[in-house]
Amino acid sequence: KENCRWATYKKQQRNRRDNYFISFREKTMTLAEWAEKLNMSTGTLWARINPLKWSIEKALTTPIKK
Asked: Dihedral through CA 47, CA 53, CA 33, CA 19, nearest 10?
């Protein structure tokens, strides 16, 4: 019991090996963490980086059209 700790579902999901890590301006976070920080969906950020082939800088700095 001494080596166990409880973590939220969100924290557990962000501690997986298959997470997509993004480094930008000397900071590395998961795609989900960047999306949360920038107030956008993970789907939007993923689409910008993969199918659309935007640069990391453009994907993280371009505002979302509303």
From this structure: 90
